[in-house]
Amino acid sequence: MKKLLFTIAVVGSGFMAQSQVICAVQAPAGIAGNYEFTWADPAGGDWATPDFLIPGTFVVDTLMMVDDGSLGLNAQGNPISAEGCGALLNDLTGKIAVIYRNTCEFGLKAKNAQDAGAVGVIIVNREPGVIAMGGGVDGVNVTIPVAFVSDATGALMITQMGNGPVVVFLGNKTGLYNNDGGLTKGTSLISKSSGVVSQLAADGTEFNFAVGTRVFNYGIDDQTNATVTATVTDPTGATVYSNSVGPIAIVSGDSAEFFPGGANSFPDFSLPSYMPGRYTLTYSLNLGVGDEYGADNTVSSDFVVNDTIFTYAMIDTVTGLPMTDNGYRPSTNNATFSTCMVIKDPNASRIGVSGIYFSASTSTASAVDLTGEEMSLNLYKWDDVFTDLNDAALGFTALNAVTFGYYFYPSDLQGETVYGEFNTQVILEDNQRYLACVQTVNLNVYLGHDTKTNYLMNESYYLQPMTPNESDGTYFAVGFGSDAISSMGLRVFSAAELTLDEVAKIEGMAYPNPATEVVTVSMDAEGPAKLKVTDITGKIALESAVSLVNGKTEVNIAALESGVYIFNVTLENGQTSQFNVVKK
């Protein structure tokens, strides 16, 4: 996990070294373009593969599926023969091998393809997103390029392979074209969050953000007429912001900044008011001459103005919930792992929070089912006093609990966004920094992250933590990095709503908890009440009439099976209380 912050200049130079490394379909035209991928990097020491960071290091050729003769289908419904774990039967001379990920090491797959004559390898994930590849035992003997793509990208390529040749470029395109400029997500400013809470965005003074990007000249020729245009469209598709900066000159192999405060800068984005819905920010590059590789001339990102979710992760267009495209956990971890998110606003007292959206998954190899898995939900006041990520006083020593809750998986909801509720709803305070976290103690559980939304430039510009994480009690202010953010979302509501809701809710608890035979229910109430106990699937396990004396009543749970139960108590005046009890 990352601990250090990079300046804008360092981010820019770093991306000049990496952003020209692409996985691009060249043919057929219908699927041509750049695709997200990772590659086997020899810098890690477990691969002998070519270094794509060296200009002119690339391979371009036709794709071919591997076949090691194995029978049957794997758990994903793909032929086991295409996993390439055994010596290959087909001749891959002059081809880029396509291999499914599943049961054996990446390095072994690549070595088998290399031995069959392949000039490169594309490994297709068995699930959404991309991951870094370890070389394993055989990686040090692999001397051809190896790339890794998502299940969706792989399916697209493989489908097209059934219709005819698919030609792919893997590697560094610097210096391949005379005129070639580009933009990247990691060097472009975007909205401060993907889920913008409407109660905190009454006008442009309350919600606004800086606009800016960096242009790279990957081509052989110097450019003298480069112009960048930034536009924002509103939920109706109307353009509500459009500004162009340029023309400027960029010499070959260099880059140019278009950031606030510089010689080339855009005005901040803000509107007098914000209708609810999805907005799209787009940066477009025009070199003034024909760009010979135009697939990287635009960069776009969305943000959604709404009144129920605050999130940094992309919001799904169908479900309206934070999206997950990969699951992460620390490489070395012995006890606890948390993903977190920060919220702080000068008008935060207008909203309350009731719970957290999140996702989790387990690896196929672990064979671990999420059913019954317990997730701990916590909201803290983050009272450490610091200015920004560069402040030496930044720490996690003053996390003061505000509310908490638990979520128990009712079934094996692998990778699905779920909602866990806090025990009590909380109205936030103005200008108070809060940290909301989801924690697991299961070393086989991966928590959901969004690698499509890239906040690297926002991190460098605003210098504020967004999605920290925790491993074995140690917190990391930028988590796995601002290009792999937690897919969490806070469920929010108007503070005015809680005034009415408070009348109907009352705090309660049970002890001992966990218990074996009898628990004592404790509430600030007296008299008759109805008790309903359900299991985590919602099935009623116990119903009875109880009477609270001095705020307490005993409940016999000896007949219940071991597990987690939800106690619902309803008083005669209509007030309710809900809390969890663990039966041993």
Structure characterization notes:
With 584 residues, this protein is mainly β. It folds into four domains: 21-172, Glucose Oxidase, domain 1; 181-306, Sandwich (Immunoglobulin-like), CATH 2.60.40; 309-496, Jelly Rolls (Sandwich); 506-583, Immunoglobulin-like. The protein has an eight-stranded mixed sheet with strand order 2-1-8-4-5-6-7-3, with helices on both faces. It has a six-stranded antiparallel sheet with strand order 23-22-25-19-27-28, with no helix packed on it. It has a five-stranded mixed sheet with strand order 10-16-15-12-13, with no helix packed on it. The protein has five helices and 37 strands. The chain is globular and about 85 Å long.
Give the helix/strand layout:
Layout lengths: L7 H11 L2 E7 L5 E2 L3 E2 L18 E8 L29 E6 L5 H10 L4 E5 L21 E4 L1 H11 L5 E6 L8 E2 L12 E3 L15 E5 L5 E11 L5 E12 L4 E4 L18 E10 L11 E9 L2 E3 L14 E3 L8 E7 L7 E8 L1 E3 L11 E9 L16 E10 L9 E10 L6 E7 L4 E6 L5 H7 L6 E3 L2 E3 L8 E2 L2 E6 H10 L3 E4 L6 E6 L3 E9 L4 E9 L3 E5 L6 E9 L4 E8 L1
Parallel strand pairs: 4-5, 5-6, 6-7, 10-16
Antiparallel strand pairs: 1-2, 1-8, 3-7, 4-8, 9-11, 11-14, 12-13, 12-15, 15-16, 17-30, 18-26, 19-25, 19-27, 20-24, 20-30, 21-26, 22-23, 22-25, 26-29, 27-28, 31-32, 32-35, 33-34, 33-36, 36-37
